[in-house]
Amino acid sequence: MSAPAKKAPRTVPLDGDILRQDLTALGSRIAPRDELRKEALVLIKGAFQNARGRIKDQVMSGKLHGLEAARQLSAIQDSVIQVLYDFAVKEFYPPSKKDASEQLTVVATGGYGRGELAPGSDVDLLFIRPFKPTEWDQHVIEFILYMLWDLGLKVGHATRSLPECVRLAKQDITIRTALLEARYLWGDLSLYNQLRKMFWSEIATGSGQDFVEAKLAERDERHRAQGESRYLVEPNIKEGKGGLRDLQTLYWIGKYLYHVYDAADLVQHNVFTKEEYKTFQNAEAFLWNVRVKLHYLMGRAEERLSFDAQPGLAAAMGYTAEKPREAVENFMRAYFLVAKDVGGLTRIFCKALEVQNRKRRRSIARIMPGFLKLRSNSDDFFVDTGRLNARPDAFKRDKVNLLRLFHMADTKGIGVHPDAMRTVTRSLDLIDDGLRNDKEANRLFLEMLTSRNDPEKSLKRMNEAGVLGRFVPEFGRIVALMQFNMYHHYTVDEHLIRAVGNVASIERGEHGNEHPIAHDMIKRIAPREVLYCAMLLHDIAKGLPGDHSKVGADIARACCQRWGLPESETTSVVWLVEHHLVMSDTAQRRDITDPKTVRDFVDVVQSPELLRMLLVLTIADIRAVGPGVWNGWKGQLLRELYFEAESVMSGGDSTKSHSSRVEEAKQALTVQLKDMSPEERDRQISRHYDSYWLTLDTATHERHARMLAEADKKGEMLALDAVSNAFRAVTEITIYTPDHPGLFSQVTGAIAAAGGSIVDAKVFTTSDGFALDVFSVQDAESGPFGDAERAQRLKQTILRIVRGEVQPEALFSKRPVYNKASAFKVSPRVSFDNEASHQATVIEVRGRDRVGFLHDVSTALFEAGLSISSAMIATYGERVVDVFYVRDGFGHKIVHTGRLKAIEDMLLRAVEGNKTS
Asked: Which of 103, 91, 73, 83 lies closest to 17 in space, CA to CA?
């Protein structure tokens, strides 16, 4: 419950006394009640909106900070409710002097109860009556609520008697928390004081431990719902980890246990030091400033820092840079550092309270003495309530203890005590170059990084405490660093730590079904230290000028030398950091059925050992980008590239001639089609060119042969086959129809209009003039595209487009125009590569994602007179990278400079959604 109520002081933004005088004058002139209410609403609304408008102007001009604005908005709301109450009981429903039950108290709850109100927030009210409802209090409550609704406010409200308040608060933790925040607004003060007394005597007494456990569980569930991490690049400023609700949870618990009325009072109870309370104040002020400005910018109660809001918000918060992207990243880094501070405060506070207030249980240490007994440094560390604690002078006595604490916690498999974490954060200045170059400290760090237990947990602990960024200053530079794009879901430091955790989980065998090859290969990787060091350092140069892979390689060399890795291992780490993208880029952006692609990849990798490490590193890296980024299709591409490269390295396929591989594929299909007549079988085998046999496997060859034979028998002009593969997370859609110019762009348009996303395409032409195009398609959730019904609808759409009955553009217009990508600017780019393939020119097209992107680009290629033999489609958040293997009308590469320039211009116009001619 809030402190004893006092009459609210007159506020500058809205003077309640003046408004009352104006309403009294209005009442003396107007007799009809309906007309009086109508005119009063106009008067009150004008004063209310003018007062709130002045607050907004001051906030957006930088004259008023968010927290003070929230308090003034609350004060304005107080005045309006007080005036409405007085107006109702004076002019409309005066209480009977003879009826003692006609009593009513208006109480603010929730954030409004704390005296803080964001511009778009609900107004939470509790109307308290002594016992049963009366006609009088119902009329007054309805009058106030209808007036508030007519003012355009969202009002959360409840009406209860005192006994109901007590009974419901005992049953429901949410109601109990609301009453904890309850603040007197107006009406019968004695009722509020009774409620306050009953709350502490009948509700709160003896329930402190239950309340703490409930609020901590509520916090954990909220974090799970918001994505667990406080380093999400579109965080929820209110409900997310490290947001305002975490600070409020901390305050609720302190208030409930210690009966404090201000967070500053927690210092007196030794919950916070003065420095920690200052951190609390700074975090609260920053978060409120962001929240209030976010509400004003969005024009609604928006709590998520979405990509489209971040640029405007960064400017409103005063962050500027030559490049708008840099201003956003600077602002978001400031946000994440504050969220990190909030995490530190809530961790120390909540875990300390958890230890202090939980019921003591018989611990393993008491049942089995010596189980958690420390075998070294017993003067510096000890186990306290199942967690590792440190003597107050442990770190001053020996700086290496700042690493040894986390190393020991990992070795023993126990948590770090909140007191020890607090002491660590106060001792960060002890981490200097002497400690960074200390052999023992680096040995401990390397053992934690490569631990077979849970290196991710150790790294997160060290990062939260600030030790990781201090001990490895190269890592400290990227702590809380955000990349303003849709592809990366986490800050750079969070991404790197999660990537290390992914390697560890693969090594523990937790993803054997998803990553069968990596699961087997990681057992053959030695030394393990190379893989783990490369994983932690692969993005260490993000945010620095230049190619982050090359710059990161130089940083990695310095780190590995400092950590004590032998030169041979350091060289391998440096190579992996410099080339950590080569496998994913090759798999997703090159045709790996082209022998030249595999040979070029092998020339870069060279070593089977590095190939194994690169496979695991690539999988762990992609998985750490964010939820939903990894899928079975990417896994399939990486597996295929791995096997092809391993085969070439071992001298396998390279010894086979091109013609012998084609012949083997034909013979394999002949066996599978033994039930066909010899004439039909020979026809199906003879109509394909070599590229078809070299690109697809026997099972696919058989499926196609039967599909084509059936279509020819029925005389179908268009046949469609759809086969979903859950493991690869794609639906393979095969189109068989007479070939004609522009067919590829028509089909891609139909698939886009149907809501499909093409991730790969192979284009084949039969010797008798039919097109056999194979598209790997996913849905919006990066899963298989569809069932039989969806495939049939797609077939009808393709038929309509091929026949000219409808244009793809007309279907695009029926889909929502806005998407997240519209918040970003992606510079279009077209590049040509005549060295990547022996037979085709490789064109790479980049631009911002939108519906119809692939259709527009493929249409431009068709209008340029080019034929597409294969296409790889990759989307990285808001950025699309489409790669096409093309030939001219004579089946040759495009080499003439003028022709290349003309094609580039057409493609750039297509990327922007403009006509190509």
From this structure: 83
- Relative to beta strand 155-161, strand 123-129 is parallel
Cβ neighbourhood burial of 430 (10 Å; 0-12, 13-18, 19+): middle
Is the Cβ–Cβ distance between 634 and 586 less than 8 Å? no
Pairing type for strands 757-765 and 770-778 reads antiparallel
The two tokens of residue 590 are 């090159």
State the residue for tokens 């999988």. 619
Q: Tell me the C-alpha distance between 276 and 268, whole Å.
A: 12
Sheet with 183-187, edge to edge strand ranges: 155-161, 123-129, 105-108, 183-187
Residue 54 to residue 612: CA distance in whole angstroms: 63
Average pLDDT over residues 235-250: 89
pLDDT at 451 over 70: yes
Q: Is the previous residue joined to 392 through a cis bond, with omega within 30 degrees of 0?
A: no
| Contact call for residues 896 and 865 (beta carbons, < 8 A) | no
Q: With a threshold of 0.70, does the pTM exceed it? A: yes
The angle subtended at Cα 746 by Cα 783 and Cα 836, nearest 5°, is: 75
User: How far, in Å, CA of 272 to CA of 745, rounded?
Assistant: 64
Secondary structure class of 674 (helix, strand, coil) = coil
Q: What is the pLDDT of residue 2?
A: 61
| N-term to C-term CA, the chain | 71
Tell me the C-alpha distance between 595 and 582, whole Å: 17
Instruction: Give backbone dihedrals phi and psi of 225, rounded to 5 degrees, phi first.
Output: -65, -30
Question: How many whole angstroms separate alpha carbon 47 and alpha carbon 445?
Answer: 63
How is residue 386 annotated by DSSP? Answer: T
Neighbours of 901 (CB within 10 A): 11
Structure confidence by residue, pLDDT tens digits, 315-340: 999 998 887 788 988 998 999 899 88
The residue among 878 and 637 whose pLDDT is bigger is: 637
Q: How far apart are CA 308 and CA 299, in angstroms?
A: 13
- Which among 748, 747, 777 is positioned nearest to 853, based on CA atoms? 748
- Residue 132 DSSP symbol: S
Kindly state the average pLDDT of the residues 390-395. 92
Q: What angle do CA 555, 558, 564 make, to 5 degrees?
A: 135
Q: Domains in the chain, ordered, with CATH?
A: 16-205 (3.30.460.10), 210-357 (1.20.120.330), 367-457 (1.10.110), 472-655 (no CATH), 819-917 (3.30.70.260)
Token pair belonging to 895: 């080499």
DSSP, collapsed to helix, strand or coil, labels residue 831 as strand
From 912, 859, 842, select the one nearest 752 (Cα to Cα).
859
Nearest to 745 by CA among 889, 906, 880, 853: 853
DSSP one-letter code for 204: I
For 169, 182, 634, the CA distances from 254, given in Å and listed in that order, are: 18, 16, 49
Q: What would the two tokens of residue 674 be? A: 């033994």
pLDDT over 70 at 171, yes or no: yes
541-545-546-548 Cα dihedral, nearest 10 degrees:
10
CA distance 521 to 828: 39
